[in-house]
Amino acid sequence: MEQLEQQLGQCSYCGGSLHPKILSYYDQIWGDETYRFENVPALVCAACGEIFFTAEVDQAMDRALQGHPEPKRFVQVPVVELSV
Ligand SMILES: [Zn+2]
Predict the structure, then answer these.
(1) Does residue 82 belong to any structural domain of this protein?
(2) How far, in Å, from the CA of 40 to the mean position of ligand 1?
(3) How many domains does the chain divide into?
């Protein structure tokens, strides 16, 4: 178990341990657009919740976007101005 945690590494923000998790979705900004990937394997920091990806997953998302994929579907996102 210790070995596994070493392989997964530590959070580069807080030093917490990373745990594998499948994200139901992840929004990736690509140029002026945002693409949503579904079922993305990620590493999530147990302490601060920061999300990391292995180089393999990162490259797979890049490759997918470079191929100008035909989207499965589109989602509408409400845009709201925040006044503080
Ligand atoms: Zn962290």
Answers:
(1) no
(2) 19
(3) 1
Whole-model pTM?
A: 0.76
CB-based burial, 23-48: b 16+ in 10 Å, e otherwise? eeebebeeeeeeeebeebebbbbeee
36 within some domain: yes
CA of 41 to the centre of ligand 1 (A): 17
Ligand 1 centroid from CA 69, angstroms: 32
For residue 79, report the distance from its CA to the centre of ligand 1, in Å.
Answer: 29
pLDDT of 2-29, one tens digit each? 555 445 789 999 999 999 999 999 999 9
Judge whether 31 lies within some domain.
Answer: yes
